[in-house]
Design brief:
Blueprint: E1 2-4, E2 10-16, E3 22-29, E4 34-37, E5 43-50, E6 52-56, E7 59-63, E8 68-71, E9 77-81, E10 87-92, H1 96-103, E11 120-121, H2 124-139, H3 143-161, H4 177-188, H5 195-202, H6 206-217, H7 221-238, H8 243-249, H9 255-266, H10 270-276
Antiparallel strand pairs: 1-2, 2-3, 3-10, 4-9, 5-8, 5-10, 6-7, 6-9, 8-11
Helix pairs in contact: 1-3, 2-3, 4-6, 4-7
Pfam families: AraC_binding, HTH_18
Keywords: Activator, DNA-binding, Transcription, Transcription regulation
InterPro entries: AraC-bd, AraC_XylS_family_regulators, Homeodomain-like_sf, HTH-like, HTH_AraC, HTH_AraC-typ_CS
Length: about 280
Amino acid sequence: MTHNIPAKEQVRIKVIPELGGLELLQAKYHRQCFSRHVHEGYCIGLIEQGAQRFWRSGAHHVAPRDCIILVNADQVHDGRCADDSGWEYRAIYPLPQAFENVSGDYAENNGVAPWFPESVVRDGTMAIQLRTLFNVLECSENVLVNESYWLSTLAMLLQRHGTVKSRDTEGRLNRTSVELVREYLHVHYLEHVSIQDLAAFYGVNPCHLIRAFTRKFGMPPHAYQIQLRLAHAKQMIRQGISLATTAAHCGFTDQSHLTRHFKKALGFAPGRYAKACV
């Protein structure tokens, strides 16, 4: 089911249950400025008009018309228009499991979800494939057709632009403090966690921890915790749980607090998302 926002900032979001709850977004923005945030899945976007400026991998990038934006799962990024004309794009947000299913066909990947090293790519063939997929998913109710275009698009994207990020083979003891803090937050993101407790537990100075974490991941620990809470909130909304209950469970002061962070990170309100999930 889809839902439109009738305003200059135009957003259309569709959730496709038969593709694992895949989110398909079509948006036209002029004033929207996305705060630094993360997604559970990858962000694969195609610029249809204008240009988007965004931060990823420690640098700013500009994606003009017909270029493809690639952001890896759980990778911090932001977004805004590159000039006063705004930008229009379509995007999908596949979870890592979707790529694992496809990459199992390729011996060199060993079923490991891919890593996209480039933030912006200009690939006419891939752009045509993405446009075809978007058009099919927006209009078709045929599950077999949707799955066929979906899997072929993932396979093409993997072959043309994906690589494999090396696994951590040295074990937990050689990981940095900030990596351990991030792992801790992934487990305890719904709890009240203080920077003093994190710093003491991992034997580092609190100020140093904040600086090092921000340098490594693009945002401080408290902001990263909010992103994890937003991801959990999306899961609850998809399950049909009320926004008030979701906000309280996920550690937000109230529903308006959840809405404010939701819109800053995703570009639309949680109520819009709830309607798209029905």
